[in-house]
Specification:
With about 375 residues, the chain is of the alpha+beta class. The chain has eleven helices and twelve strands. Bound molecules: adenosine-5'-diphosphate and magnesium ion.
C-alpha cells in the first residue's frame, strides 16, 4: 500500500493532492547472478514489494522538491545544478540528469516517495526508486513510457550519476515485471521475454551489514573485464564474457582468480537457459540449478557470506524444499528458496529462531511471487 502512503506523504509535505502516483517493483533474481554486466542472461521476477512516487507540477522555477518516507524534510534538486551528493537524492537526480540530457525540458515538481522494499538488502530498492520516479515524471509530462527504454535510462543514471557500475537487470525488472511471469533477460543485446512462473518463493534477508559490497562489486566488474581481454587475445570475435566457451576459457592465459570468475559467468548463463527450458515445459523451477548456482557464487565468484551459506544449508535440511541460493549481488543480503508453498511457509516460521540462535541476529523473510513492474496507481 505504498501508493496510499505516497499520497499521504505528499499531502503532508506539499498540501493538496498529487496529479498522479506511479510505482515500480523490487525484484528477486531466480537465477543468473553477476551476469548482466557480462552480457549474459538472467531470470528475475518483480515482486509485491514496491516503491511509489506521487508527483505534481510546480510553476515558477526548475527545482524539484522531494521527500521520502514522510520524514527528513523536503530536499531541493535544482535542475540547473544537479550534482552528486552521496545521498539518496542522487537516484532521482540521476534520472533528472538523464531526462534533461536527452533534451526534455523538465519543469519544477513536487514529489513524495514511499516504499516497502528493504533498502540495501539486495531486493533492488535503488532501481525501484529510479524507475518509479522516471515513470512518474514521464507520465506527468506526457512523454513516451516504453519500459525497456526507461529501464536503460535509469541504469545510465545509476552508472553515470550515482557511480555504481551496475548492469541493467534491476531496472529492467522494476520496469518490465508481469504478474505470473518471470523475465528471461539477455543483456547483449538487451532482451526481455516473459516466461510462465506461478510459484511462490521465500526470500530470506540475512540482515547483515554489507560494508564491503560496493568495492567488492567493482572488483568483480574489473576481474571479468580482465578475463574477457585475456580470452579476446586468443578469440578476438568474443565481444562479451558470457559469450565465451569453456574451451576458449581453458585455452586463454589468465590468473586463477579471473578464470574462476569467468567460469562462474559462463556456467551461470547455461543454468539460466536450462531453467527457462524447464519452466516453458511446464515444470517447477529446478532446485538443483539453484544449488549449483550458489556453489558457483560461493567458490568461484566468492560473493557469498557465512550467513547466506547457513540459510542455504538450513533450507535444504527442511522438508519439501527443492533448492536455495543467494540472490542479488551477495556479500550478505538475501537468499531465495524454492519448494512447495506449505514447505516455504513452514521454513519461514522455523528459520527465525534457529537463525537467531546460530548467527545472533534476526532474519526477515517474505513469501513473494511474480508481480507487475512500473505502473500508474489509481
Ligand atoms: P538495493 O538496491 O539492493 O536496495 P542499493 O545500495 O543499491 O541497495 O540501494 C539502496 C539505496 O537506495 C539507499 O541507501 C537509498 O540511498 C536509496 N533508496 C532506495 N529506496 C529509497 C527510498 N524509498 N527512499 C529514499 N532512498 C531510497
Ligand atoms: Mg541497488
Amino acid at each position: 500500500m505504498t501508493a496510499v502512503e505516497a499520497r499521504q506523504h505528499f499531502t503532508r509535505s506539499f498540501g493538496g493532492e498529487p496529479t498522479l502516483v506511479a510505482s515500480a517493483a523490487g525484484r528477486v533474481n531466480l537465477i543468473g547472478e553477476h551476469v548482466d554486466y557480462n552480457g549474459g542472461e538472467a531470470l528475475p521476477i518483480a515482486i509485491q514489494r514496491r516503491t511509489s512516487v506521487a508527483v505534481r507540477l510546480r510553476a515558477g522555477d526548475r527545482v524539484t522538491r522531494i521527500n521520502s518516507g514522510g520524514t527528513g524534510g523536503v530536499l531541493m534538486l535544482d535542475h540547473g545544478q544537479l550534482r552528486r551528493r552521496k545521498k539518496w537524492t542522487d537516484y532521482p537526480s540521476g534520472v533528472l540528469d538523464q531526462l534533461i540530457g536527452a533534451g526534455v525540458d523538465v519543469p519544477g515538481m513536487e514529489v513524495a516517495v514511499a516504499s516497502d522494499i528493504p533498502s540495501g538488502s539486495g531486493l533492488s530498492s535503488s532501481a525501484a526508486l529510479e524507475v518509479a520516479f522516471g515513470f512518474a515524471v514521464q507520465s506527468l509530462l506526457g512523454l513516451d513510457t516504453d519500459r525497456v527504454a526507461l529501464a536503460l535510462l535509469c541504469q545510465r543514471a545509476e552508472r553515470e550519476f550515482v557511480g555504481v557500475p551496475c548492469g541493467a537487470m534491476d531496472q529492467l525488472s522494476a520496469a518490465c515485471g508481469e504478474p505470473g511471469q518471470a523475465l528471461h533477460m539477455g543483456f547483449a543485446p538487451v532482451m526481455v521475454r516473459p516466461v510462465p512462473f506461478a510459484e511462490t518463493v521465500l526470500v530470506v534477508d540475512t540482515a547483515v551489514p554489507r560494508s564491503l559490497r560496493g568495492s567488492a562489486y567493482a572488483d568483480r566488474v574489473r576481474e571479468c573485464a580482465a578475463a574477457l581481454s585475456a580470452i579476446q587475445r586468443i578469440a578476438p570475435e568474443v565481444t562479451v564474457l558470457a559469450e565465451a566457451t569453456t574451451e576458449q576459457l581453458d585455452r586463454a592465459e589468465m590468473p586463477d582468480v579471473e578464470r574462476r570468475r569467468a567460469r562462474h559467468v559462463i556456467a551461470e548463463c547455461e543454468r539460466v537457459r536450462l531453467a527457462v527450458r524447464a519452466l516453458e515445459g511446464g515444470a517447477r523451477f529446478p532446485g538443483a540449478l539453484a544449488l549449483e548456482s550458489h556453489a558457483s557464487l560461493r567458490a568461484d565468484y566468492e560473493c557469498s557470506s557465512p550467513e547466506l551459506d547457513w540459510v542455504v544449508e538450513y533450507a535444504m535440511r527442511s522438508p519439501g524444499i527443492s533448492g536455495a541460493r543467494l540472490t542479488g549481488a551477495g556479500w550478505g543480503g538475501c537468499a531465495v528458496v524454492f519448494g512447495e508453498e506449505h514447505a516455504l511457509e513452514a521454513l519461514s516460521r522455523s528459520i527465525t529462531a534457529d537463525y537467531a540462535a546460530a548467527i545472533g541476529s534476526r532474519p526477515r523473510s517474505w513469501l513473494v511471487s511474480a508481480d507487475a513492474g512500473a505502473r500508474l496507481e489509481g
